[in-house]
Amino acid sequence: MTDSPRPNGNRRTPSPPVSSPGTGAPPADAPRSGVPGSGKRRDAFFDNAKYLAIVLVAVGHFWEPIKDDSRFMEAAYTVVYAFHMPAFIVISGFFSRSFDMRPDRLGRLVTGVAVPYIVFETAYPLFKRVVDDDPGQEVSLLDPWYLTWFLCALFVWRLTTPIWKAVRHPLPLALGLAMLASVSPRIGDDLDLQRVLQFLPYFVLGLCLRPEHFHLVRRRSVRFLAVPVFVSALALAWWAEPRMTTGWLYHRDSAQELGAPWWAGPVMVLVLFGCSLLLTACFFAWVPGRHMWFTALGAGTLYGYLLHGFVVKAGDYRGWFDASVPHGPVGAVAVTVFAAVLVTFLCSGPVQRVFRCVMEPRMEWAFRRDAAGPARARGRGQEERAAREAGGTRKTREGREAPEQVSA
Q: Which residues lie in Basic and acidic residues bias regions (predicted)?
C-alpha cells in the first residue's frame, strides 16, 4: 500500500496499503459469513483481497529499482500500480461506512491509524540516518515519508466520512475535488494533501458500495472477461511506456509539476479513475471467496505494508539492487518471489504479536471512559441474537451491513 524517487530521499513514497488491522473485529480465522461485510465475522473474500493486494504492493516496490532495464517489467509495473492502491482504498471506504464521531470509534482511529503513523514517520528517517549514514535526515510529522502517506490519508478520509454520507452526490463531488487538486501545484507536500485529494474518489466509492456490488464482479462471466482485460491492459502499458510518465499513477503531483498542460490533470484523473476501476473489478473477480491458506494473513497486511519498506530501503541504501543479477530475467523472478515470501512472513501471527504494541496499542489510559459504551454493546448483542433467531442479516444501528474496520 509506490513512487519513483525524488531528489530529497523522503519523497520516494510508494503506495500501500496495506491493510490495517481490524479494530475490534473478530479473529481473522473466524468462519466467513457468506455475504461480504455481513455480520461481525471476518469475510474471507476481503481478507484474501487484502493479502493478494499487499503482495502486489511489495512486488511493485522491489521491482522499482530493477524495472528500467526491461520494457516488459515497466509495463507490468504500470498495470499493477494502476489498480492495487485503488483496490485497497475501495475496501477501506467500504469498511468505513459505519464510521461516525462516536468516542469509541475516534479512539480506534487514533490507536489504529494515528499512532502507527507517528511511530513509522519517525522510524523511517531514523533508519535512513543509521543505515544510509545520513545524519542530516530530518524527522517531520507533516511531510509523510515513503509508505506512511497512506495512514495520513486514511486518517483524513475517515474523519470526513460523515460529510460524504450526508451529501447528495458524494462521488461526483469527490471527483471534482480530485480534478481541482490535479491543477493546483501550490498545495505543497504538507500531509501529502495532493495525494489525499486525488485518491479520495476511490474511498468515497467504497463508502457508496454495498455487498451486492461485490457479488456482481465475482460472477463466472466477469472472471472470464478479466483475462482479456488484463492482457489488453498489459499490451497498452507496453505501448504507452515510452510515451507516458508513470508519475500520473502515483497521484502525487499536479499536471504542471509533471510537465503537462493544466487541462491534462482533470482529463487524466477521469481516465485513470475509469481504468483503475476496471482493473480493480477484474482483480476482485479473481479473488477467492472461500477460506484459503493465506486468508488469516489478511488481518495483518498493515504489518506487512509498513515493515517491508525497511527491507526495500536497506537494499536501496546499501546498493543491493545495483548488482547485475537482479536485472536479468532470472534475477527478476527471484526478486519477485523474495518480495512475496517476505511480505507473507511480515503479515504472519508471530510478527503481529511482536509489533502489536505500536500497530494496535490499547491506550485506555489516553481516553475518557465512554459511559454509553456498555449500553451500545448490550444493544448490539440483542440485535445479533434477534438476527440469528430470524435467520437474517444483522445490521448495525446505522443500517449498515459492514462492521467498521481499519483497512489499508
A: 380-408
CA distances (Å), origin 181, targets 85, 184, 205, 256, 385 = 18, 5, 18, 11, 47
Check if the beta carbon of residue 85 is closer than 8 Å to that of residue 279.
no
What is the per-residue pLDDT across 118-171, written as a single tens digit (0 to 9) for each?
A: 999 999 999 999 988 888 778 888 888 889 999 999 999 999 999 999 999 999
190 alpha-carbon distance from chain centroid: 20
pTM equals 0.82
Distances (CA, A) of 203 to 198, 274, 349, 366: 10, 14, 28, 29
Non-local (6+) Cβ contacts of 29 within 8 A are: 295, 296
- What span, in angstroms and rounded, lies between the C-alpha atoms of 27 and 318? 39
* Region 48-56 average pLDDT: 94
Angle (nearest 5°) at CA 85 between 317 and 174: 130
For 92-113, what is the mean pLDDT?
Answer: 89
Residue 111 DSSP one-character state: I
